Queue: 2 jobs
Job 1
Amino acid sequence: MTDQIEITLPPYSRGFHLITNEIVSQLDALPETGILHVFIKHTSAGLAINENADPSVLHDFNSTFDRLVKENEPWYTHTMEGSDDMPAHIKSVLTDSSVSIPITGHQLNLGTWQGIYLCEFRNHGGSRKIVVTITS
Amino acid sequence: MTDQIEITLPPYSRGFHLITNEIVSQLDALPETGILHVFIKHTSAGLAINENADPSVLHDFNSTFDRLVKENEPWYTHTMEGSDDMPAHIKSVLTDSSVSIPITGHQLNLGTWQGIYLCEFRNHGGSRKIVVTITS
Amino acid sequence: MTDQIEITLPPYSRGFHLITNEIVSQLDALPETGILHVFIKHTSAGLAINENADPSVLHDFNSTFDRLVKENEPWYTHTMEGSDDMPAHIKSVLTDSSVSIPITGHQLNLGTWQGIYLCEFRNHGGSRKIVVTITS
């Protein structure tokens, strides 16, 4: 049995953002046991699961990713769409195009400190589409 | 219901390569709704999902990964299989051993610009095996 | 059909560790075809799939990750939980919160050289909880 919805997220600023509630609030009752799969339909933003409590973590993710994959590197050849574009593609592969979370007892079985991140790597990425699929 | 095939890819040169068609062309009819899971049975090549249109993106992925994880670092101890081997293991973890994509209306629900990448990190990786599993 | 167990791993030292047997030994008979999904309920440790034979690979993963994401970077603001904490969050996103592996003929369809890694990024991470879900 598979259940699926597509969610259009509002535009987020460049950086890492918690979207767990945005997703959970749009789900019907979850099955007893299964997997929740979240997929982002874009190549310059990513998904990840990490710390859900302290905004300083989100901040440090952003500044560290900006240093891991810098803008305007002399070896970039894909430069027509702005200096934030090619780094955004690479960062989205370093994070992920999908995350998947076990469902246990009709609930997401996340750890106490885990939340779902939207990782927006463009300066003006606009609204992003994600597909949520529940397999049981 | 689960459906599965194993595909042997032809050898690819070191770098990032689009293999969406190579996979899709070998699939039977897809279910109405589900997940397509692609797994690579190797530890020095990876999978990713990213930009499917401009070859300069594939080129820049390769040159950036070669700088993120360099060959011949003085701290490497696993050096018997060539200078491209240990970096290939690390790069394959930075990309992924599997990608999974929602199926919607009997089709892969990829974004307009998304394709599946084989990330070949060895100089002479040879042919690679992937396992494609469809869950619905 | 979905089957699920939660496993509490013993504490591991900081570094990369093979846990394939730890997982497989706790599974009942696997279905003919399906997906095994392993999820870690923590934000400062990760999962990955890589080389299962040579301990030097595990060693080099650790020293390379320690250089990719250093402790005590001047831009970190999340510093209250120790110098190993913020790098651990970032490394756990560079690896993964889950891995998934095809099941074929009632067995895990891993490549010859593939094993499942627990990537422990804290100095004293303690025991870690993982959730194993089998979808078929």
Job 2
Amino acid sequence: MPELRFDPLKKTWVIISTERAKRPHDFSLISEEKKEEGECPFCPGNEDKTPPEIFAIREEGSKPNEPGWSIRVIPNKYPALKLEGKIEREGIGLYDRMSGVGAHEVIIESPEHGKSLADLPLEQIVKVLTVYKLRLKSLRADERFRYVLIFRNYRSIAGASLSHPHSQIIATPVTPKVLKEELSIAREHFSRKERCIFCDILRDEMRFGDRIVKIHKNYVLFTPFASCFPFECRLYPLRHSYDFAEIPDEELPELALALKDMLLRIKLALNDPPYNFVIHTAPSLHPRPGKPDYWGTIKEDFHWHIELVPRLTIMAGFEWGTGFYINPTPPEEAAKYLREVDNAVEGMLR
Amino acid sequence: MPELRFDPLKKTWVIISTERAKRPHDFSLISEEKKEEGECPFCPGNEDKTPPEIFAIREEGSKPNEPGWSIRVIPNKYPALKLEGKIEREGIGLYDRMSGVGAHEVIIESPEHGKSLADLPLEQIVKVLTVYKLRLKSLRADERFRYVLIFRNYRSIAGASLSHPHSQIIATPVTPKVLKEELSIAREHFSRKERCIFCDILRDEMRFGDRIVKIHKNYVLFTPFASCFPFECRLYPLRHSYDFAEIPDEELPELALALKDMLLRIKLALNDPPYNFVIHTAPSLHPRPGKPDYWGTIKEDFHWHIELVPRLTIMAGFEWGTGFYINPTPPEEAAKYLREVDNAVEGMLR
């Protein structure tokens, strides 16, 4: 059983894999692109090489775990957390630990091996977003989970172990630190001003304009004022909305367009770099023991959004040790380069 | 002039380089090891290829910026922060920024190009530590700086742009987030218990024993309970001490030994991996405007130490977006492997 451990000095929970621990010689030097060996387990026809599917969008008449799917959701073969079990909490001296209960799923975004999410037709991206919503709702129904993370690693340097297009979902029994901080900052801002801090940021960004990359009907793409990394992007819904799972289905085509637009800009302006994106959305709103009003104003104070970081620079040793980032590209410059590919992107979105 | 910007959602300061901004084609794919071109500017005889030295330990009779040195401190040729200038603070809408005033120095640890810090003789490591102390004290005398960071990136995947052995120092006009949090957690613990949290952790670790790698006379090497990364290490002084700059000179040989021991263990157990280490020590204790008792109990509540992270896994996109770490090697296992090289390390320390 994996274990969650709490660092009393950093106030972070860490997942420690206790089974199948990696030994010194299991680590290979981090290299530019890993070579894949053998057949791709995510390709149609190889359904038996993955754990049985949890969900799929399939052609009528096709059978589970056989070809005929256009999107397929499977448990991660090497999950960071285990689905079965009760959550046990324990203190050991100064430390805290709990059982590593959670879910770790893979969303195979297309049957086509060679495509990236940026290349998929809009209808297919709508399907991906529909599945994000469905899995988010389904995993949240499990009262053991406090947060459901949807994220995407593109290319091996960004952590993707297989190149076949896929996203991942991890449901955790604790709220990850960055989200916890963001939730509390949003609440604090709202309690003082009765305004959403994200809506305030959007208003500021729209007024300044120099970090805006693209304004869609209901979405805005911009580079944040204090970007930690070059060409970091944020995609915010313009209309206040605390939860990704609450997006009406009829709005998904516009989000698919905004997402594809962002990914194409990154691809064209930066020569198809590795990247990570994460959806920041509301946590599971189950009641907390002894805290009847725990969720307070969350529906008013939080605003879901997507954060994307292209992996252009070495990161995280020094930065991790200090929390200090040095960004060699001002976000205003980054926005300019991402706007310059307007025409090319326009052509590819039609 | 570089700029410091504050992210209201992440509560982090970021350094934004405004001169010589990196454009899209300035980024090359992150690769295993960069090739170095031309002569090494850190080698003896090439002193004119670096900015003039700030300090050096040299043979009697040798002249500044000429060969004859055993340690040389120079300004970073491409500094993240600028030494000249006043600190100007400004608010823009929701955001804050200040001028990027600070220092960025390089400590060339040896005239020998091909050596790593782990390979240097103990006397040479003592010199390196002596220079750390001197530069820490000297930079702290500048009232504009709030924190002085000493760190080391080893190999290009860990962020070293040159292979000649060197460490870096950055002095910043703000306290980096991780340190700020650590300082405040230490203060909170002390205010409740009148005990240093680091001393408490050491006591727990000594009692449990399974994460202890090596106990020296006054230093302890261990792998932290909630390690974010495989084979992460901590080197703590056993005797409570809040400040690296306060180590008596006569204790430096023992610290040199403990540091070399740690680096050799990492090198031997993990096949000479890239790594980063950072010294966490007290901030500059200049008075803060309007806060006469700002530093409170810092001499009792804080405990300097070294944090080391070998770069064995891909990090920081997903982790950065969420603050959630998945560590495939339990620290108890890591400690075991780092203890297994005891004999080999012993032989190399003589």
